[in-house]
Amino acid sequence: MFALDIKGKPRFCWLFDRGLVDYQVAWEWQRSLVAERREQPNLEDLLILLEHYPVYTLGTGAKTEFVKFDLDNSDYQVYRIERGGEVTYHCPGQLVGYPILNLRHYHQDLHWYLRQLEEVLIRVLASYDLPGERLPGYTGVWLEGCKVAAIGVKVSRWITMHGFALNVCPDLTGFTKIVPCGIVDKPVGSLAQFIPDISVEEVRGRVAIAFAEVFGVKLVEAEINHL
């Protein structure tokens, strides 16, 4: 079933594939896009797919006890941002998705939205015959006991920002300097542990297809570079 626009037609969603982007640049872009949609709620939705240079981010209520290095004297890029959730790590080889959606056109329910994002990623894994799953009480997607996808979002006036991070083929050593998502007893994993030759480039297309299916939108790749 398609999400519908104000004219009753299937909802249109821009797809931005931006490759490797500095976290600060992408964050400011998201905030600008969300601000525009607060003022003009009928602007088109977007899905931004990219990778980040190595960076740590903490949600609004994240506990610093889950960070294993000195935040006041750090060699790493660290940002405290407006999403929910604890500390996480981004780096090349991890596919990050930032949906900028107006949930008034879908379902005005945060838990529904989180489950939909999980469903997108579970379908991507299923396309490789990998059994992605949810764990009760947690947000994200697991594969054979390893967390391969993290989700952290911000919703304001039903406009979404931030999103999901799928570990495709990253160097996982950066996760050793934190307690990822504040979960002490469950390891982080990647798809490359199950499919050694997998690449972010091929996974991008599968994420786009699954996103369009789950949210019922027509994705159109954007040609104008906004970054």
TrEMBL record:
It is found in: Cytoplasm. Substrate binds at residues 83-90, 150-152, 163-165. This is Octanoyltransferase. Pathway: Protein modification; protein lipoylation via endogenous pathway; protein N(6)-(lipoyl)lysine from octanoyl-[acyl-carrier-protein]: step 1/2. GO terms for molecular function: lipoyl(octanoyl) transferase activity. Transmembrane segments: none annotated. It comes from the Bacteria. Its EC number is 2.3.1.181. Residues 41-219 form the BPL/LPL catalytic domain. InterPro entries: aa-tRNA-synth_II/BPL/LPL, BPL_LPL_catalytic, Octanoyltransferase, Octanoyltransferase_CS. Keywords: Acyltransferase, Cytoplasm, Transferase. In the reaction, the free carboxyl group of octanoic acid is attached via an amide linkage to the epsilon-amino group of a specific lysine residue of lipoyl domains of lipoate-dependent enzymes. The active site is at residue 181. It catalyses: octanoyl-[ACP] + L-lysyl-[protein] = N(6)-octanoyl-L-lysyl-[protein] + holo-[ACP] + H(+). The record marks 147 as: Lowers pKa of active site Cys. SUPFAM superfamilies: Class II aaRS and biotin synthetases (SSF55681). The lineage of its organism: Bacteria, Bacillati, Cyanobacteriota, Cyanophyceae, Oscillatoriophycideae. Catalyzes the transfer of endogenously produced octanoic acid from octanoyl-acyl-carrier-protein onto the lipoyl domains of lipoate-dependent enzymes. Lipoyl-ACP can also act as a substrate although octanoyl-ACP is likely to be the physiological substrate. HAMAP family: LipB. Belongs to the LipB family.
